[in-house]
Amino acid sequence: MIxxxxxxxxxxxxxxxxxxxxxxxxxxxxxxxxxxxxxADWLYAxxxxxxxxxxxxxxxxxxxxxxxxxxxxxxxxxxFKSLLDVFQNxxxxxxxxxASINDLYAVCVKEKDFTTANYLQWYITxxxxxxSTVRSILDQIKLAGTEQGGLFLxxxxxxxxxxxxRVALAAAGGMTQxx
Length: 179
Ligand code: OFO
Fold this sequence. Notes:
mainly alpha; binds hydroxy diiron-OXO moiety; Ferritin
C-alpha cells in the first residue's frame, strides 16, 4: 500500500512526464517545419521515451494499490527562435524534471516508502544521462554556429542519435511493456 502523500507526488510526476512528452512533440513539429529532419526525428523519439517514463509510473502506482490519475492536457510552448533555442529549452526542462524527481524521492524517504524510493533510482540515473546528452548536443550546436553547412552536418548526426534512442526504447520493451 502507498501513502496518500506518495500517491499525490507520483501523480504530480505522471503529469510532468506527460507534459515532457507533449513539449518534445511540439519541438519535433517545429524542427520538422524548420527544415531539421534529423533533430525532428530525435525529438519525436524523445517524445516516445517520455511517454515510456509516464507509463512506467502509471503501472507502478496502480500495482502498489494507488490510483494513477491521467492529467488534463496542457498546451506546450510551441514557438522557438532557433535550433539552439529549442535545445536550451530542452536542457532547462530536463533540469526541472531532475529537481522534480529529487523532490519526489524526498517525499518517499519522509514517508518511509523505501520501495518507491528504490524504484525511483532508475529515474535518477536516467536524468543524469539525459542532462549529459542534451549538454553535449548543445555544445555541438554551438560549434556548428549559424553556418548552414555546420547545421546540416549536425542535423545528420541527430538522425544517427535518434536511431540509437529507438533501439534502446525497443530493448526496454517499447510502449506495451513499460514496467
Ligand atoms: Fe527526462 O524526463 Fe522523463 O523522467
